[in-house]
Amino acid sequence: MIWQPLSKHTCNRRDLSPRLLIIALIPILMSAGASFTTSTTGSSISTAVDRLNTQSTTIFEATPSLHDCLLANLSIGTPSLSLAYDESNGNVYIADGNTVSEINASSPTVLSIVYAGGSPQVLTEDSANNFVYAANVLSDSISVIDGVNNSVVRVLPLPNLQPAALAFAPQTSTLYVSGSVPPQNVVGRVIAISPTTGKIAGEVTVGNTPTGLAFDPSNGYLYVSNAGSGNVTVVNATTMHAVDSIIVQGEPVGEALDSQRGTLYVSDISSGTISVINVSSSSIVDTIRFASGFTGNSGELALDSVTGQLFVAADRLQVVDVSTNNLAGNLSLGTGLNALAIDVKDSILFAGTDSGGRLYEISSSGVCPSQKTPPQPSLWEQLPFLLTVIILVSLVLVLSLWFRRQRKRATANPSVTIPVDEQRSQ
Question: What is the pTM of this model?
Fold first, then answer.
């Protein structure tokens, strides 16, 4: 005899297993888990600023051909008149006219403050010996700061010279200082001094009001920008004699030297241009113009020779592609951008303002590790995922108990069935 259910609604519930429901819920669990995972790809500039910059200042790139990104925006509370990066300890030094602050570039946080004295306004570094040199404008001296214990170990007097720029030659451990002769502060002079003994090894007269200074290790020459006389004096650093004079338009102030390419960049604050000088021929080979001028800011330059980018402190942070000498970036960092320093090894630019007391750390390599999403906890440690799992597991348990109860009821009250022959007769 063949038995069949009375109707399709009286099927035996023993055939429905909670395990089938659990299997059906597996895709739901997987999709819920996937919804809480995050991407670790690098962020764009706008995203990075939203996360890192808690102030109202924003960063803007007019021409997105570069991939510069903001790594940090640190409030230091003091103006930045000059910056120096010491690659031996990875710290940035800031002169504000009263003190020299040491900043941990990787954090970044203020580590210590050195009271150099005499209004320190110009800095340069000696990474080989872990020293930082601060030029004190009011006391006509140089403070030698030990980068290990961050203290002034000696003060070097500068007789009859008000310092304006510094350059250090690691090959000879010689510090070069350019400045004006008081009391008129018009006639310029450069002296060579030993930072260890304070002994002056030589001096030379240059143009009026020297402001920029660069040393070329490939030929042993010094290049001095004279804002008052509109020229660049070329000095043999060994003999301390002027060997050439390059006429530039306006008021040359900032300098950046690319010794590998044999190119000197000199900024002119009066016209908002940069003269590109071939150091071999001592001639101007190109002039770079900008969408916005210097507007009274320093016109300081910083060159990243690895990425081929030249940074200019103007009313915005101007970025030049040195392979084409064209403007490649125009970054807004607020007002008063005044001082620049470069970490060439890691292609990181440090930019300080003389108003608002802020220090910006910018990656110029196109790789922005700190802008990637921070490492996320494992999937099982994420609270939203755990809550979803708990809810779904609870639902499975409730349904399992309900089906078990229904099976017991079905066993106690079995379904009424009718033989097939009787169904046919009906």
Answer: 0.71
